[in-house]
Amino acid sequence: MVRLPLTPAQLEAGRRLGRALRTARGERELVEVAETAGISPETLRKIESGRLPTPAFGTVVALSRTLDIPLEELAENWNPTAEAARSAS
Q1: Which residues contact 54 (CB under 8 A, 6 or more apart)?
Q2: Does residue 30 carry a pLDDT above 90?
Q3: Ranges of each domain in the chain
């Protein structure tokens, strides 16, 4: 099965997710958060920077729990209109 390239909207959604996770991490060390979530620091670095715009669902769940962010809140970042709605507020 061939995976289609991500659309610009999907790439932007991945960047929003990364920014939300980075903001939630705050002053916590990247390595500490990654280890607690059960992922590699490099994976977390890629997600936060937007270089991994579509992390696995299990990874997002683990980060949600580790950072105490409701999964629904993180899911809002994937909504293509999320950025437009925030800009309008």
Answers
A1: 6, 10, 14
A2: yes
A3: 8-79
